[in-house]
Please model this.
Amino acid sequence: MGGVFSEEQEAGDGSSAKGLSYAEERGEKIRMATKGQEGKGLWVSVDRVEYVVGASGPPDRPHQFVYFVTIHNDSPRAVTIVGRKWVVTNAQGHRLVIEGDGVVGQFPRLAPGEQFHYNSYHLVDSDSEAEGAYLGKDEKGEGLVVRIPAFRLDLPMA
Model:
């Protein structure tokens, strides 16, 4: 999975991040069970987002948010997640696009009815919104895309 922008930054999970600057997730805990767009029975829920107090990040993105995601396979076919793309837009409208192979270093295969749970994080400079998509293949090799629903990354009040 390659990026399309010329500037590159290292993302929090070690994948490449293409774009300008960004701000991701906000302060207080945000609880949600937001269902993403269904594609062939595959969907995503953002289960929880938490601001990490005291976490250190680079000076241009000092705020860390941890997010917990579940990928659900309610289709009749096995699906393998082969890539991901995140778009994080900060309060100033700057976007950071993060693309990479797999999910947290894995290529999860989900049989019908299975789920894949994981957590990772975004580093941001201001209030932001994150959204994206997972790229997958079913057992016939057909590609599919499933949307990651947008969620807020709002910094806690001082």
Q: What stands out?
A: The first strand starts at residue 8 and ends at 10. Residues 8-153 form a domain with the Immunoglobulin-like fold (CATH 2.60.40.1470). The radius of gyration is 15 Å. Residues 1-38 have pLDDT under 50 and may be disordered.
